[in-house]
Design a protein that fits this description.
The complex is a heterotrimer of chains A (357), B (320) and C (598). Chain B has helices at residues 2-29, 35-40, 46-55, 62-76, 89-124, 129-143, 146-157, 180-214, 217-224, 229-241, 243-259, 261-266, 272-281, 285-313. By secondary structure, chain B is mostly helical. Chain C is α+β, with helices and mostly antiparallel strands and 598 residues long. Chain C has helices at residues 5-8, 37-40, 81-90, 143-151, 163-167, 201-207, 218-225, 293-302, 314-323, 351-360, 363-369, 411-420, 444-457, 469-477, 499-507, 527-537, 542-559; strands spanning 61-66, 95-97, 105-107, 115-117, 122-126, 184-188, 191-195, 242-244, 257-258, 262-267, 284-289, 306-308, 328-331, 336-341, 376-378, 433-439, 461-467, 486-492, 562-568, 570-574, 578-579, 596-597. In chain C, strand 9 (257-258) and strand 10 (262-267) form a beta hairpin. The radius of gyration of chain C is 24 Å and the shape is globular. Classes of the chains: A alpha/beta (357), B mainly alpha (320), C alpha+beta (598). Chains in contact: A-B, B-C. At the B-C interface, helix 2, helix 3, helix 5, helix 7 and helix 12 of B face helix 1, helix 8 and helix 14 of C.
């Protein structure tokens, strides 16, 4: 495998869940890739399909009756077609995952050490004593003080931050090539969030693994991610390097995300603007551009034409799925960036709504 | 924890005294045969009846009788004499206890095993045909009367009166220590009957509990570690799902120890349930008192054991 | 809890009621014991009257499956048909019966018939030489052992239930409390004398057939009789061919008898066949107690070397009749069931109301609940089938009086008597609520319900209660002061084939016990009948007694002193390879002394 080949390449991945109310199109044809030692941030609201796509990568949506199509190429091997046994050999070994709520994600009845030992021994044929030594080592690695004592404690005896450190330690047990962190800091205090992110960054430097970090909070990935994919209603609506995405965001939804979070750079007086409207139904998604019902800049034909994810003119590494003209988008963002609300931006840019036909 | 157990034990003793007192009073308020007259037989003259009443201590005030009874229990572990068979209650109970313990604990093993197996399979294949058949069958078993079920099993499988003569029939109970193999084969049908209804309840309970547990985040974590599904279900899932079951297991066992009269009768197993039942019919108060006390003791001990087990099984639970 | 009994127990009805029989049964009259019995049982079914007592094969173990436990295994206390099965195999009273007779008494521990002298005031019995107690006593039985057996009956730790009924004429007996009794003397080791204060020699002589006369060794038993209650039963020694298995100290409890669980009878090594009328074919008898009657029934019918020796479940009787008829024994004259109506208090002091009730009752429905014609006959008067005087008093059809002629009940006849009683509408309008106390468990509860419904149809308001049978007797129907109006579930089983044994205690006004346990439940107290009974008690000679008691039976019907409905026939079952011999004198129970294995 050449160095230029991606560690993971997801191609046109679709995940459907048949339910009594209809088929839920949780992931609706996404494509992305991630390279060794890099960090990809997948950003979106809950229900955007970001978690489902990651769970599908680990084969964890199979048991829930998911219909999966497309390809998930890990080191060139398509994971979609693998047997359950083959998949088990990859889970927690080559690809590991850290979940949102460390309290509910750790088994309440087993000691932290036992859960770590189990993770080690799931993929390594080592004695219990060796696995235990490894567990202590892992706890030390993630910055838990006095690990040889802590290893014999139950999860409820840990603080929230320590539990997440333990979860990370567990994910690192078999030195995975890819670590998927699903909202790793959402359940934690703000100060602890920063520590956990710093820990992940440090571990990536030391261990050289690739990280997919899934979050609804662009602020989390701002520091950490090399590349960012923004998901909406099961699709990627914008993908770019972190730098480009923050400096020249192209999609109105991305703008919304950026305006709905407090940033350190933003002025204190700038009002936070939540994205109006409710997330769309995944059973009967809106016609045309899925975002159009919530898009302040939508034109009537946006309800009929489905935009494709295409490179932004002049920026081949920056992709966006939006029907607005590139020039209009640039000017709108300039207005918004200057602190205008969408209505003001619209007026200033001079995009008129077409009269209804 | 130790202090907690001691406190619970003291409460248990108090409860037993209260239960004794209630039984004592109830036996005198409810219309039952007069023990003295029953002993005297028909057409007895009042003089003899009075003497018997005196011999049995029944002419003393109720409070004195109760005090003497309690004194007997606490100082000499003496439960008195049966009015009906002239035998010491303690001896009657101790000869009957092994049979009932065999029946109930063996039955508990069977119903827990069967309930777990069916419950787990049903939970893993929720809403499948197998699940529906097992849960439907469970419903039938829950509502099947033990007596009827016992008769059916005997008429079908008993070595003496069955159609397919496989298992020893009624009256084949022997002690475990004397002949373990005979004991085991004789107990198979009774265990099935004792366990049938309860296993069905447990299967439904475990199914529900396990379905709930399997949607927990820590189960997803276990899967994400790359553990086999078997290990995920049996170690991570069942381990958590079984906790609520254990609470009722203790109480079910305790309750059954005093009330297995139907199964004991159908299979002619000389146990506590039948002893108590016969004693009620014979107005044999000392035995009723002794067996009720024993049943209450079972419940008290079971409750404490359940609490201890709970603390042991769920590290988050602590008593003080 | 108690209602479970309805499932477990089918029809253990009057078995607890064993009558005391007063004087008069002639020891030599056997001619009429089978009278009426043959017509009471369907053809082709074994009855005690038709069985052979000889020719059995020696050896083997008989298994007995009983639902009910023994009540008392101490011969001084036992007074229950199930107790008798074991007691008459292990003990030798002075006299006993052969299985196929109600009335023919055979000398047992006694060497010969009793001598009644001194105008009926002295009874002398010679006892056999060479009869020995079982281990650990082992020595020869003497007359002093018989004397002690009778003395201890009055010890309240033993509390024999019938001694005052039979032995009250013995000098010093009424005041005795366990010690020596002046009226019982033993001139030598093999002679015992009973000195009586009145000429009641016939009563005393007759009572010697009861197990209370079985010898008890005082030097061994006294320490047990001092216990409250006596523990002799748990340590008893035997004189009969069998004994309860015992440990070396003689302790039976826990070895040969485990209450509610099992009993084991083994051969008494000290028994000498040449001294006994019992053939005693079996080596051992294993009694298992407590099984379900339907399961037991099938185990017996399909099994080997098994009998059931207590009440057979109704479905099993039916099954046996249909498929295993040669394994079924039906014993007529096994007691009766009737309704006691209060002759001394309340509305039923009026003879016409009693007749109306009799006429209105559907006796066939009552008996259908009890298992139908296989095990019952519609009761039409008070002497049983097989009893002397039965045929003279009307046989199966009964006296020809209009209230007796409609076994299915006839409201028209009932209304006729209601009108005679002063209720012109034909319905009771007296306004008094009458109290009905019946017994729980079927078929008794069903019988009580039918009775209660009949009373309502007649216009009565009733207060209806069902209680456990022992409670019914000891707290309600046997207590005079309770003044219960109707007791639908009483019954009587006699010990003797003599009319007096059937009619005296339940219907003689002189025998009402005010402060003890009364068995004249209807408080029947009619001067004319009392006088007739007093005269009949003193009669000697089978023919005269038969006539007298049959006439009394007619008078009881004429006064409608109680409402009869069921003459019991007891069913017993055995495995096909058991040569079963049933006891006519013990409601058809299998006799361990005569039963053998094929």
């Amino acid at each position: 495998m050449s160095a230029a080949e991606p560690l993971l390449r997801v191609e046109d991945l679709r995940v459907d869940f048949p339910t009594e109310d209809g088929v839920v199109h949780a992931v609706d044809g996404i494509t992305y890739e991630i390279y060794h030692g890099r960090t990809l941030g997948i950003v979106g609201e809950s229900g955007s399909g970001k978690t489902v796509s990651s769970l599908t990568t680990l084969g964890l949506t199979r048991g829930q009756g998911a219909r999966v199509s497309g390809r998930i190429l890990f080191e060139g091997r398509d994971l979609v077609g693998l047997s359950e046994a083959e998949m088990r050999g990859i889970r927690g070994n080559d690809i590991a995952m850290v979940f949102q709520d460390p309290l509910s994600s750790l088994h309440p009845f087993f000691k932290v050490g036992a859960q770590l030992i189990e993770a080690v021994r799931a993929h390594q044929d080592v004695s219990k004593a060796k696995a235990r030594a490894r567990a202590v080592e892992l706890l030390g690695l993630v910055g838990i003080p006095d690990p040889s004592r802590r290893v014999d404690q139950f999860p409820h005896e840990f603080s929230g931050g320590m539990r997440q450190r333990a979860m990370i330690a567990m994910a690192l047990a078999n030195e995975p090539k890819l670590l998927i962190a699903d909202e790793p800091t959402t359940a934690l205090d703000v100060t602890v969030q920063a520590q956990i992110l710093a820990l992940m960054e440090q571990l990536q430097r030391e261990l050289g693994m690739a990280i997919v970090i899934i979050t609804h909070d662009l602020g989390v990935v701002a520091e950490l991610a090399d590349d960012i994919a923004v998901m909406y209603a099961g699709r990627i609506v914008e993908a770019a390097s972190a730098e480009l995405l923050f400096s020249q965001p192209q999609h109105p939804y991305t703008w919304g995300l950026l305006k709905s979070i407090p940033t350190l750079e933003g002025s204190r007086t700038e009002p936070l603007v939540p994205i109006s409207g409710a997330p769309p139904s995944l059973i009967n998604p809106p016609s045309g551009c899925h975002f159009h019902p919530r898009c302040p800049y939508a034109q009537p034909e946006h309800a009929r034409v489905d935009p494709r994810l295409e490179p932004v003119p002049g920026e081949p590494s920056h992709h966006v799925a939006c029907l607005l003209e590139a020039d209009v988008r640039r000017r709108l963002w300039a207005q918004l960036h200057a602190g205008r609300v969408p209505e003001e931006a619209l007026a200033a840019v001079g995009v008129e709504e077409e009269p209804p036909r | 924890m130790t202090r907690y157990i001691i406190r619970r034990l003291l409460w248990g003793v108090a409860l037993l005294i209260i239960v004794s007192a209630l039984t004592f009073v109830m036996f005198r308020i409810l219309p039952t045969g007069d023990p003295a007259k029953l002993r005297a037989g028909r057409l007895q003259n009042p003089k003899i009846i009075a003497e018997i009443r005196n011999n049995l201590g029944l002419d003393k005030p109720l409070l004195t009788q109760f005090w003497l009874y309690m004194k007997g229990i606490f100082l000499h572990f003496d439960l008195g004499f049966s009015y009906y068979s002239n035998a010491p209650v303690k001896e009657l109970i101790s000869t009957r206890l092994p049979a009932t313990l065999s029946l109930v604990f063996g039955g508990a093993v069977v119903w827990l095993t069967a309930g777990l197996a069916v419950g787990i399979v049903s939970a893993r294949r929720a809403r499948s045909r197998l699940d529906r058949v097992s849960m439907g069958g469970a419903l039938v078993l829950v509502s099947a009367p033990e007596y009827w079920l016992g008769l059916i099993l005997l008429y079908v499988f008993a070595a003496d009166i069955g159609q397919v003569r496989i298992f020893p029939g009624a009256g084949s109970y022997v002690g475990l220590t004397g002949a373990p193999v005979k004991w085991l084969t004789a107990m198979i049908l009774p265990w099935l009957v004792v366990a049938a209804g309860t296993a069905a309840v447990y299967a439904r309970l475990i199914r529900g509990s396990l379905i709930e547990t399997m949607s927990e985040d820590y189960i997803r974590t276990a899967r994400a570690k790359g553990l086999s599904e078997r290990r995920v279900v049996l170690r991570h899932g069942v381990r958590a799902a079984i906790n609520p079951v254990l609470t009722i297991l203790g109480l079910d066992i305790a309750a059954l120890l005093g009330s297995s009269v139907l199964v004991e009768t159908v299979f002619d197993i000389p146990g506590i349930g039948r002893l108590n039942f016969d004693a009620i019919n014979h107005s044999d108060f000392p035995i009723v008192q002794g067996t009720v006390l024993l049943a209450a003791l079972f419940v008290v001990v079971a409750n404490i054991l359940v609490d201890i087990a709970y603390a042991y099984l769920d590290p988050r639970v602590r008593y003080s | 809890m108690r209602s479970l009994r309805t499932i477990l127990l089918v029809g253990l009805a009057g078995v607890l009621v064993l009558a005391l029989a007063a004087c008069g049964a002639s020891k030599t009259s056997s001619s009429s014991s089978g009278a009426g019995a043959s017509s009471a049982v369907a053809a082709g079914i074994q009855t005690p009257a038709t069985e052979s007592l000889t020719g059995g094969k020696k050896g083997g173990t008989l298994t007995v499956l009983n639902h009910e436990d023994f009540e008392h295994i101490d011969p001084g206390q036992s007074y229950f048909s199930i107790d008798y099965e074991a007691v008459y195999a292990t003990q030798r009273p002075l006299y006993s019966y052969k299985p196929n007779t109600f009335s023919e008494v055979t000398p047992d521990m006694a060497e010969s018939a009793p001598q009644i002298t001194d105008g009926g005031k002295l009874v002398t019995v010679k006892i056999r030489h060479g009869v020995h107690f079982s281990p650990p006593v082992n020595r020869e039985v003497t007359s002093a052992d018989v004397a002690y057996a009778i003395e201890r009956a009055a010890n309240s730790n033993v509390a024999n239930p019938y001694y005052m009924g039979y032995f009250s004429a013995v000098e010093g007996m009424p005041k005795a409390s366990g010690g020596p009794i002046p009226g019982i003397t033993t001139p030598d080791k093999y002679t015992i004398e009973f000195h009586l204060t009145e000429p009641a020699g016939e009563i005393v002589a007759n009572a010697l057939v009861l197990p209370m006369s079985a010898a008890v060794p005082p030097e061994y038993a006294k320490k047990y009789d001092a216990e409250k209650p006596s523990e002799y039963g748990n340590h008893q020694v035997a004189t009969g061919p069998y004994m309860f298995k015992a440990d070396s100290s003689g302790k039976v409890l826990g070895t040969g008898y485990q209450p509610g669980k099992s009993a084991t009878l083994v051969r008494n090594p000290n028994w000498d066949a040449s001294t006994d009328h019992r053939p005693a074919y079996l080596d051992q008898i294993e009694v298992k107690i407590g099984g379900d009657t339907e399961v037991i029934g099938r185990q017996v019918l399909e099994g080997s070397h098994i009998v059931q020796d207590d009440t057979v479940a109704q479905p099993i009787v039916k099954l046996a009749y249909e498929k295993y008829r040669d394994q079924l024994l039906i014993s007529p004259g096994s007691g009766d069931h009737y309704m006691a109506v209060n002759n001394s208090y309340g509305p039923f002091t009026d003879v016409n109301l009693r007749k109306a009730f009799w006429a209105a009752l559907d006796r066939e429905a009552m008996n259908k609940a009890r298992g139908g014609s296989l095990v019952t006959n519609v009761m039409t008067h008070f002497l049983y089938p097989g009893m002397p005087g039965f045929e003279k008093a009307g046989g199966l059809a009964g006296p020809k009086v209009d209230y007796n002629e409609h076994p299915r009940g006839d409201m028209a006849v009932a209304e006729k008597y209601m009108k005679l009683a002063g209720y012109p509408s034909g319905k009771y309008t007296g306004g008094k609520t009458i109290q009905v106390v019946g017994s729980t468990g079927n078929p008794n509860a069903q019988n009580a319900e039918i009775a209660n419904q009949t009373l309502k149809n007649m216009g009565f308001k009733t207060k209806f209660n069902l209680v456990d049978q022992s409670v019914m007797y000891s707290k309600y129907c046997g207590v005079v002061s309770e003044k219960i109006d109707v007791c639908p579930n009483v019954g009587w089983i006699s010990d003797f084939g003599d009319g007096q044994a059937v009619l005296d205690v339940p219907f003689n006004g002189k025998l009402i016990v005010k402060n003890g346990t009364n068995a004249n439940w209807g408080l029947v107290d009619h001067p004319k009948i009392n006088a007739a009974m007093a005269a009949a008690e003193k009669l000697v000679g089978a023919g005269a007694r038969e006539d007298a008691w049959a006439k009394i039976d007619e008078e009881l019907v004429a006064e409608a002193v109680a409402i009869p409905y069921d003459w019991d026939k007891q069913a017993a079952i055995r495995a096909k390879d058991v040569l079963g011999v049933g006891d006519q004198w013990n409601i058809g129970s299998w006799d361990f002394n005569y039963t053998s294995l094929k």
